[in-house]
């Protein structure tokens, strides 16, 4: 169910233990071949599938699509807000949800730059609302073993506007992908302890702008290996994992 599509009375009649899910995404550059709303479209797709499968067993909030993308600001079109702004804004929305009595809340993240502040939101909101269970899910982290079996590129092949994100967009809306502009592999590595990709975290973290990581291309990974069929497989894996997690809250 979509929060904004219900009436006030219909919201009032709902079981307050129903899981409430909000997508936090991004409007930012995605290389020469993907639109700025790629992260928002991907997050929205997963929650549409969640809604289709679980229906009256889940309540989906309106998404927050402009989030923490300062590291992409070297590229035209990127929109961003400060971490403090996102913390305050999302926390205020979740506080309204809690004020209406809902106790199971999930942030569903579809942008790498939201992971740090997303965890801060969970920690700060959870400490102030002890009667709620609040969690953070990032789509590529909820089923990493299964997703690794889909990946054809080696380490560093999935990152940003990459094999996975391009595949998902080909599956979701192939007409939005500039197929004649899909580039090859791009990923500028750094210290061994800081190297990572979507599925494999480094031993530590190191701040770099997207221009640095991508060598100026805006792409981290290998979108040349993308396909709509692969996007469909990724979608199935993520949605199944997401449904399992949401059901567990009931």
Notes on the protein architecture:
By secondary structure, the chain is α/β, with parallel strands linked by helices. It has helices spanning 8-12, 38-54, 83-99, 115-128, 144-150, 163-173, 210-214, 228-248; strands at 20-24, 59-60, 104-109, 133-138, 158-160, 220-221. It has one domain: Creatininase (Rossmann fold, 3-Layer(aba) Sandwich). 39% of the residues lie in helices and 10% in strands. The strands form 2 sheets. Strands 2-1-3-4 form a 4-stranded parallel β-sheet. A two-stranded antiparallel sheet has the order 5-6. Helix 2 (38-54) crosses helix 6, helix 3 (83-99) runs parallel beside helix 4 (115-128) and helix 6 crosses helix 8 (228-248). The relative contact order is 0.18.
Q: For the report, how would you describe the main beta sheet?
A: 4 strands, parallel
Q: Which sequence of strands runs across the widest sheet? A: 2-1-3-4
Radius of gyration: 18 Å
| CATH topology term | Rossmann fold
CATH architecture classification name: 3-Layer(aba) Sandwich
Average pLDDT level? 98
What is the helix content? 25-40%
Low-pLDDT residue spans: none
Number of helices: 8
CATH C-level label: Alpha Beta
Q: How many beta-strand runs?
A: 6
Count structural domains.
1
Cofactor: Zn(2+)
Pfam family, one: Creatininase
Keywords: Hydrolase, Metal-binding, Zinc
Protein name: Creatininase family protein
């Amino acid at each position: 169910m979509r929060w904004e599509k219900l009436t006030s009375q219909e919201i009032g009649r709902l079981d307050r233990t129903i899981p409430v899910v909000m997508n936090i995404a991004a409007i930012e550059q995605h290389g020469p071949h993907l639109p700025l709303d790629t992260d928002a479209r991907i997050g929205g797709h997963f929650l549409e599938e969640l809604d289709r499968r679980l229906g009256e067993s889940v309540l989906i909030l309106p998404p927050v699509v402009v989030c923490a993308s300062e590291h992409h600001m070297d590229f035209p079109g990127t929109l961003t807000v400060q971490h403090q702004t996102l913390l305050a804004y999302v926390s205020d929305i979740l506080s309204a949800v809690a004020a209406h009595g809902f106790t199971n809340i999930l942030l569903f993240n579809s942008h790498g730059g939201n992971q740090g502040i997303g965890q801060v939101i969970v920690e700060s909101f959870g400490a102030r609302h002890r009667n709620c269970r609040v969690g953070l899910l990032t789509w590529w982290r909820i089923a990493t073993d299964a997703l690794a079996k889909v990946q054809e590129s080696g380490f560093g092949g999935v990152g940003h506007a990459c094999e996975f994100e391009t595949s998902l967009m080909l599956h979701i809306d192939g007409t939005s992908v500039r197929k004649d502009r899909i580039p090859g592999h791009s990923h500028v590595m750094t210290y061994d302890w800081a190297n990572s990709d979507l599925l494999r975290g480094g031993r530590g973290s190191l701040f770099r702008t997207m221009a640095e990581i991508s060598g100026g291309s805006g792409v981290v990974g290998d979108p040349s290996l993308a396909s709509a069929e692969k996007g469909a497989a990724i979608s199935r894996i993520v949605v199944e994992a997401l449904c399992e997690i949401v059901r567990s809250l009931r």
